[in-house]
Design a protein that fits this description.
membrane; transmembrane; 7 helices; transmembrane helix
């Protein structure tokens, strides 16, 4: 298969399958949120122990005071992270085998899977964004300090990080077997650094105006961390023997 056509096919097929999974996941979480919030009147806005720790370290800001801790997005954030880890992990064992056996190169798989992971992250974020937009404009249940598009993109970047986290672990175990345990440690170290960047980034946004240089620096640092991780994944799956 030609390289360009191959990675586009990988991107389309993986996006189609994983987005189908996400619709089931999203629907279940939404039903639970509606039941608790509207029927039982229980406050179920999200919280993240790791994020909470970083926010306190960054200046005593409670995560529930941030835009990612409000409304449905706050409720969805933690389940979405777990879901994305599972999707990332299965990206190797489930999809790499299939595509390589059908003549797709590992390089084309990698580029296609990267695009698919971005599409999945953005798709879930946009669906969540629609729900919180309804909460904000129709029910006046939430109020965001930053523009809606910033909230959606920040959410997408957060869950994309966890997809990459699972993808790295999956690649490590697929290539090295039990040696993949070391990739868990590597992934955890990377996630701690990335969570710190994302939390500091949002903490800067909470300050309001005149934070563009700080936010830009943190954003570029976050992109650098993503680039390093994707490079490690690319090296891990290169020339890896496909299991029959």
């Amino acid at each position: 298969m030609e390289s360009a056509k191959a990675y586009r096919k990988v991107a389309f097929d993986m996006s189609y399958v994983q987005f189908g999974w996400s619709l089931w996941f999203f629907g279940i979480v939404l039903i639970i949120y509606i039941a608790f919030s509207f029927l039982f009147g229980i406050d179920v806005q999200g919280n993240s122990d790791l994020g909470q720790l970083f926010f306190k370290f960054a200046g005593g800001v409670e995560i529930r005071e941030t835009d990612l801790g409000r409304g449905f997005i706050g409720f969805l954030l933690l389940p979405a992270k777990i879901f994305m880890i599972i999707c990332g992990y299965s990206s190797v064992s489930h999809f790499l085998n299939y595509f390589v056996r059908h003549g797709v190169t590992r390089k084309a798989y990698f580029y296609g899977a990267t695009i698919a992971s971005a599409v999945l992250s953005l798709g879930i974020a946009l669906m969540a964004g629609v729900i919180v937009w309804i909460e904000q404009t129709v029910f006046s249940r939430v109020y965001f300090l930053t523009p809606w598009i910033v909230v959606v993109l920040t959410f997408a970047l957060n869950i994309f990080a966890y997809y990459a986290f699972g993808w790295l672990i999956g690649a490590g175990f697929y290539r090295y077997g039990i040696g993949g345990v070391l990739f868990i440690l590597l992934a955890l170290a990377w996630m701690l650094a990335t969570e710190a960047m994302l939390v500091l980034w949002e903490a800067e946004l909470l300050k309001g105006t005149n934070v563009v240089p700080e936010v830009l620096i943190l954003f570029l640092a976050t992109l650098l961390l993503f680039g390093v991780l994707l490079w490690i994944i690319r090296m891990s799956i290169g020339r890896v023997r496909v299991r029959l």
